[in-house]
């Protein structure tokens, strides 16, 4: 099986619109959550979100092309642009048919749907935007990235709600392993801070109604009461090892394993015993050729909902047994909010940086956990420690579970 390394990173997040500012924010324990500015929240119970701020779409192409992209596509193209630049790849030197894209979005463009619905209701069917469909469908992020950079290889969009980004990275990894591509952009993107989205998640009782942006996102805390919606994109350049070495690439880390399962239990709640997520972790660790004891760190799904954090903790205990007590566990969402289909993308960037720099960021706003949440969730401050291998979990509505394993690159693996 061909080895796969990570040679480039890109991010658009509530903490900053590039990897450096995003990672610095995580290390400093800052929150990117703020009052919603994208629409008037009068009459809404939820007033806060993890919005992207001061986004510049100039890197996404000429103004005419950018105008035809919805925001979730622009975020994806911007993150992909940074990742490609970071990797040092010269596109003119690559076979475009060996360079693919796997970027997921759980929703696509609710903005286009909202605008189209208003036009249909107010002005009739003849006034609906002719580009409504290609604007709104979720695969257009991957499509626009390919068009922007001339990438003609395998191009896919995995849609598994909040697991979309992690599944997309996993499938990019598999594509290189099995010889379908030499380079893949893998990640997730989302731009769902809209009236319909906030209203829908509020009615589902999934979102916190806390109006304090600094303290609202509280994963693993006993006073958690829902997640904060976020937006952005995270993209990794995954590359076959010999290809990367031949061009003298800087290697951040190696992607080692990928696992996926379904709870087959409930449309929104994870399985209460954590068995589905536990098996996804086991599959990923086995795929990496590792033992549970070889894992140092878990970037948890950690949404801050009462059920997710409890059931994910049970899953970690079920997978790791006694070793669970030795793991460092954190939630990036404590500082960014929950980016839905993009969550796995930015959390894979965070995991990669943790492996590279041997640092695990804190879980913000974690003051005290209830009795069953008795693992080390990095309360209070980040930790400098050796991270030889870590995992990132994503759990999506519908029971979708995805886990990836990223570890330090070594010339020889046992």
Structure overview:
This protein has helices at 19-28, 63-67, 71-87, 110-123, 132-136, 140-149, 164-177, 195-203, 241-246, 275-287, 306-320, 333-336, 343-357; strands at 4-12, 34-35, 48-49, 99-104, 155-156, 183-190, 232-240, 253-262, 297-299, 328-330, 359-360, 383-384, 389-396, 400-407. It is 33% helix and 18% strand. The protein has 13 helices and 14 strands. Strand 13 (389-396) and strand 14 form a beta hairpin. The two termini are 14 Å apart. The longest helix has 17 residues, at 71-87. The strands form three sheets. A ten-stranded mixed β-sheet has the order 5-4-6-7-1-8-14-13-9-10, sandwiched between helices. Strands 2-3 form a two-stranded antiparallel sheet. Strands 11-12 form a two-stranded antiparallel ribbon. The radius of gyration is 20 Å and the shape is globular. Helix 3 crosses helix 6 (140-149). With 414 residues, it is α/β, with parallel strands linked by helices.
What would a concise description of this structure say?
The chain is an alpha/beta fold and 414 residues long. It has helices spanning 19-28, 63-67, 71-87, 110-123, 132-136, 140-149, 164-177, 195-203, 241-246, 275-287, 306-320, 333-336, 343-357, and strands spanning 4-12, 34-35, 48-49, 99-104, 155-156, 183-190, 232-240, 253-262, 297-299, 328-330, 359-360, 383-384, 389-396, 400-407. The strands form three sheets. The protein has a ten-stranded mixed β-sheet, sandwiched between helices. Strands 2-3 form a two-stranded antiparallel ribbon.
